[in-house]
Design brief:
The complex is a heterodimer of chains A (310) and B (449).
Chain A (H helix, E strand, L loop, with lengths): L3 E2 L12 H5 L2 H31 L16 H8 L1 H32 L6 H8 L1 H4 L2 H12 L5 H8 L13 H28 L4 H9 L4 H29 L3 H6 L11 H11 L3 H9 L1 H20 L1
Chain B lengths: L5 E2 L1 H5 L2 H16 L23 E7 L4 H19 L2 E7 L1 H14 L5 E5 L2 H4 L8 H10 L5 H7 E2 L2 E2 L2 E6 L2 E5 H6 L9 H15 L2 E2 L9 H12 L17 H17 L11 H7 L3 E6 L2 H9 L1 H6 E2 L15 E6 L8 H11 L1 H12 L3 E2 L23 H4 L11 H8 L2 H10 L4 H16 L2
Parallel strand pairs in B: 2-3, 2-4, 9-10
Antiparallel strand pairs in B: 4-12, 5-6, 7-12, 7-13, 8-10, 8-11
Helix pairs in contact in B: 3-16, 9-11, 10-11, 19-20
The chains are: A mainly alpha (310), B alpha/beta (449).
């Protein structure tokens, strides 16, 4: 193909054409980024700023005139025992589920990294809990935990383990256990598939060399595999923590925050206060309490990643 | 002089510069495309209502009695909308999901033309609802006068912000054969007697009294509030200016409830919503439960033996009397509706005794009770004597915030299930004093007192 050259002398004082402006790498980068930036500003930045403003007003569904109230909504939330319980619930829920999802995810990933028949089908099936819409799978769990019709309870009673079934959703501790179980079931495939991708990048030669040097399978896994996939683990942990802290659908379908608020998370309480009770500003303040926690998680992880990469 | 880079013809055709040109051109074309057709101007609210060619969107709840839904989807459309040339859209949502839709519409300033509110929501959204006093007054007069509870729910500071639609009357459903098997000849008239009889039935039949106490719109509050009121307890005093929940009366209520729950109920009810007890009763897993008549009406069709064995008394009385909290509904027209004329016409049609009477018979057969007194008289829909206790519900029923007038704070408290959770905490084993103190703290936050 014949190459052509485009040359136009640019003299001092003459404005550059749009084409010439777009040829400047720095400017072009911003132009190309601008659609994504606009979407981020419109759908994330603007709602976030609005919720910050909302949280510092007294706006409710019933108010026509909105007043600035500073941090009152934040301090009022702290006084509420329901909010205090919600904070505890959120940390317990997030902490327990993330640890279990990590352990099960690593185990499943190691398993799926082996060679066996129907490996690809097994890998695809592994993703099912992750790809089924949460609300749909939560309804299935609702039936599994139902006080009257629970399959788990049927098995417990029929097998003679206990005279009566567990009050899964009607007792605070069991209700928390129930939403934790459902969350672990749903979230483990994400860990497993992501970690599996990390495992496949581990150089077999390193593991073989360690084996020749006498390292046991456990030592090879702990001293070679885990350090090599640590960045993947950390990213997966970060995403899962963010998603779990802000969880809503699963809890809303299974317990609506009950019984007696023992399973309320930030998301469900903010929804109840803002939408059901109509106190939009208070709901915004409650949901914004998630923000500092998430920021700490993200910053800590990014600092760690930057250090490890240098 | 600047040196330009070398490019090929293909490069120029698909260059990044051209990509941006094409993108901008496409965006401009979309932006400058044909504008959507605007709706024809509607009739002036002050003039005669022009129905032909108008549109009405009705947001209604999904009834537990399917025939009621059918009435709105078919009868209302065929008998009113089509003959008048109105394009009527009926959107049915479950009772628990109605509030998010309503809040979103009111905040966005657009959505349904008519929305069915529950409880005292008119007080919570009053500033954003149209004044419907003229229509509400006329319907009330035609119907022989509203029950006090209907007026309290829909009228805010003397202005009707909604037109009362009706009430789901709640009554205990119980199996007479199991009661007799346990040695009782009639259903207990007081809560303390119910605790004793409930314990006997539980011992004999291994079935419990299934009372929902989860976060759900109907059965949990319609049990908890009457129980509290019948022992003299309440959220506030009569003025609504002082939190009164931390009282000897409330403690009496909670102690009595603890007795009832431990002897006659079962902890699994703490997670139940409005449909859980329906399923459990139909599956004969419980012997009694508080509910709208939907359980009985379903059994009439699906399990006549169960229906024959079922009786429907109102809630028992406490030391301070017998109370009922029916689930009330009202039609509201948001202020964002520019021409409320067609919506008001539709509400007038539905609520006129001439239409509402057949609706009660064909639709709910007593499930939805009329908001006005003709409902218990000439319009009474059922020849089944089991429904007779329902005739008292309109007069007996109270509202969120009772004995104070309804208020946004009382509505907010109801939406947050504070009283329901106070009972649920006691059912979970918490001391009545502790649950009461918790409720007091939460109510102070809500009422700002």
């Amino acid at each position: 193909m014949r190459a052509e050259t485009h040359e136009r002398p640019v003299t001092a004082g003459q404005l550059p054409t749009i084409g010439e402006l777009l040829d400047r790498q720095g400017l072009l980068a911003y132009v190309l980024l601008s659609p994504a930036l606009l979407i981020l500003i419109a759908f994330i930045g603007w709602p976030f700023i609005t919720s910050l403003w909302l949280a510092m007003t007294d706006q409710s569904v019933s108010t026509s005139v909105v007043r600035f109230v500073g941090l009152n909504n934040f301090t009022d939330a702290l006084k509420s025992q329901i909010f205090q319980q919600t904070v505890r619930n959120t940390f317990v829920y997030t902490g327990v589920t993330v640890v279990f999802k990590l352990v099960f995810g690593v185990g499943l990933a190691v398993l799926m990294n082996q060679s066996f028949r129907l490996k690809n089908i097994a890998r695809a099936a592994l993703l099912l809990p992750w790809i089924v819409p949460t609300a749909l799978s939560a309804i299935a769990w609702l039936w599994l935990f139902d006080g009257t019709f629970s399959v788990f309870n049927w098995v417990i009673v029929r097998s003679g383990i206990a005279d009566r079934g567990i009050n899964w959703l009607g007792e605070g501790t069991w209700a928390m256990a129930a939403i934790i179980i459902a969350n672990i079931w749903r979230g483990t495939p994400f860990f497993a598939i992501s970690i599996l991708a990390g495992l496949q990048t581990v150089d077999r030669e390193l593991l073989d060399a360690a084996a020749v040097d006498g390292a046991s399978p456990w030592q090879r896994f702990w001293r070679i595999t885990i350090p090599l996939i640590r960045p993947v683990l950390l990213i997966v942990l970060l995403f899962s923590t963010v998603w779990t802290i802000s969880d809503f659908q699963l809890v809303y379908v299974l317990t609506r925050g009950g019984p007696a608020n023992s399973t309320h998370l930030f998301g469900t309480l903010a929804y109840d206060v803002a939408v059901r009770a109509g106190q939009l500003s208070q709901g915004a303040a409650i949901s914004l309490y998630m923000f500092p926690v998430l920021i700490v998680c993200v910053v800590a992880l990014l600092v760690y990643l930057r250090r490890s990469s240098t | 002089m600047l040196k330009r880079e070398t490019t090929t013809a293909t490069d120029r055709l698909f260059s990044r510069r051209r990509f941006i040109y094409y993108s901008a051109a496409l965006a401009a074309a979309v932006a400058c495309g044909p504008t959507p057709a605007t709706a024809p101007p509607s009739a002036s609210p002050s003039g005669p209502v022009q129905l032909k060619g108008t549109k009405v969107n009705l947001l209604h709840w999904t009834s537990f009695v399917p025939d009621e839904d059918k009435w709105f989807k078919e009868t209302l459309v065929n008998d009113w909308a089509k003959p008048n040339g109105v394009d009527l859209t009926v959107e049915l949502v479950s009772a628990n999901e109605a509030q998010p839709k309503i809040v979103a519409a009111l905040q966005a300033g657009g959505g349904p033309d008519v929305m069915l509110l529950q409880w005292t929501w008119s007080h919570l959204y009053a500033d954003k609802l149209s004044d419907v006093s003229a229509v509400a007054e006329k319907i009330g007069n035609d119907g022989g006068g509203y029950y006090d509870v209907m007026k309290q729910n829909a009228q805010v500071q003397g202005v009707w912000r909604a037109v009362p639609f009706g009430m789901t009357g709640n009554a205990l459903h119980y199996r007479e054969s199991l009661l007799k098997q346990a040695g009782a000849d009639k259903f207990p008239a007081t809560w303390s007697d119910l605790a004793k009889v409930g314990a006997d039935v539980k011992a004999k039949s291994k079935l419990f009294l299934g009372q929902a106490l989860g976060h759900s719109y109907g059965d949990p509050p319609t049990f908890s509030f009457p129980f509290l009121w019948s022992h003299g307890g309440s959220e506030t005093d009569e003025t609504g200016k002082k939190i009164a929940i931390n009282s000897a009366a409330t403690k009496d209520a909670l102690v009595a409830f603890k007795e009832l729950f431990s002897k006659a109920c079962d902890p699994q009810c703490l997670s139940w919503d409005d449909s859980s007890n329906n399923r459990a009763y139909a599956a004969k897993q419980i012997w009694a439960t508080l509910n709208g008549a939907s359980i009985y009406l379903s059994a009439v069709k699906a399990d006549p033996d169960l229906a024959n064995d079922t009786q429907l008394p109102l809630l028992p009385a406490g030391p301070k009397g017998q109370f009922v909290l029916g689930v009330p509904f009202q039609y509201a027209i948001p202020k964002y509706v520019k021409d409320p004329g067609p919506a008001l016409e539709m509400i007038s049609y539905i609520m006129s005794p001439k239409t509402y009477g057949p609706f009660m018979k064909v639709g709910g057969k007593g499930y939805t009770l009329a908001p006005y007194k003709k409902g218990e008289g000439e319009l009474w829909p059922s020849s089944d004597p089991k429904f007779d206790p329902f005739k008292k519900i309109g007069a007996l029923s109270k509202w969120y915030g009772y004995p104070a007038p309804p208020s946004p704070a009382a509505t907010e408290s109801g939406s947050k299930y504070i009283v329901v959770d106070m009972f649920a905490k006691v059912a979970q084993g918490e001391a009545p004093e502790s649950a009461m103190s918790w409720a007091e703290g939460e109510l102070k936050n809500v009422y700002k007192l």
